[in-house]
Fold this sequence. Notes:
The protein is an alpha+beta fold.
Amino acid sequence: MGFNGYEFTWNNNGDGNANVQERLDRAFSTPSWSNRLSSNQVTHIPVLMSDHLPIFVEVGHQIAMSQRRRRPHRFEKKWVVHPECEEVIRLLWSHDGINGSPMYCLKTQEM
């Protein structure tokens, strides 16, 4: 996600060469989450009396896929008589059709 602000989020308040600075705090997102939301931003917030900079994660507005609520898919009996019905079913069943992260797909296949 990147960030705005000072590069490091922690320092040991040491003097000179004894000063240690690290970027300890980070924000992560999946590609699908980032694609669904616009204007995501991480900011390292400067403070005066602390060895730690807090991070602020600003989440943008969700990009609407559809304003209407999705209806569940329903099977229609009339589809059975369609000449390509059997081929479509065979093609779809040959594909595992599991979407999600690799760990989710693995866990779903084990069930």
